[in-house]
Amino acid sequence: MNFHPWINAFHIAAGVIWTGGVLAMAVLSACVSSSSGNYAGNMQQTLAGFIHRWNRKVTTPAMIILWGCGVVMLVSHGALPHAWLLLKIIAVLAMSALHGILSSGIRKMVNGEQPSHKLGMAGYKVVIILTVIIIFLAELRP
Q1: What is 83-133 written as a DSSP string?
Q2: How far does Cα 133 stand from its chain's mean position?
Q3: Can you give the pLDDT at residue 78?
Q4: What is the C-alpha separation between 42 and 55, in angstroms, rounded?
Q5: Between 45 and 69, where is the model more confident?
Q6: Would you tell me the crossing angle of helices 83-110 and 122-140 to the nearest 10 degrees?
Q7: Which of 3, 97, 106, 121 has its CB surrounded by the most CB atoms within 10 Å?
Q8: What residues contact residue 38 under an 8 Å CB cut-off, 6+ apart?
Q9: Minimal CA–CA distance to 99: which of 59, 57, 41?
Q10: CB atoms < 10 A from the CB of 48, how many?
């Protein structure tokens, strides 16, 4: 039986879930960087707590599944990857790094601290750009 379509489907589903979670963290980080006031602070801390729990229970496991399925497909292929795939892996590594940076910032927000990163409004734009690059590379395989 050929398991590749199943592994690929899990890979894609995990990618969608992971990207959504990273985008949610990036949007919250952008909101925090552009707002002030006590009400905003309390609301942001509550939202940060929710997103932090979601990140631990959904987003991070989705990233692990995505990477696991990707590695299985790469190893099962048995040949050196094409240039498009190497570029895709670099983009996914960048997204993974961004996930880590945003996770750290959300964790600090939950503890009532300011995030140390200065992504501001650029964070969600980077997530969108990386997502588009990854999808185009995976679909078009230039």
Answers
A1: HHHHHHHHHHHHHHHHHHHHHHHHHHHHTTPPPS---TTHHHHHHHHHHHH
A2: 13
A3: 77
A4: 20
A5: 69
A6: 150
A7: 106
A8: none
A9: 59
A10: 25
Q: Which of 129, 115, 117 is nearest to 23 (CA)?
A: 129
- CA-to-CA separations, 85 to 95, 108, 140, in angstroms, rounded: 15, 35, 11
Q: Does the pLDDT value for residue 67 go beyond 90? A: yes
Q: Which tokens go with 140?
A: 């078009």
Q: How many CB atoms lie within 10 A of CB 41?
A: 14
Instruction: Map residue 75 onto helix, strand or coil.
Output: helix
List the structure tokens of 57: 């229970």
The mean pLDDT value for 81-101 works out to 95
Residue among 115, 94, 91 at smallest CA distance from 103: 115
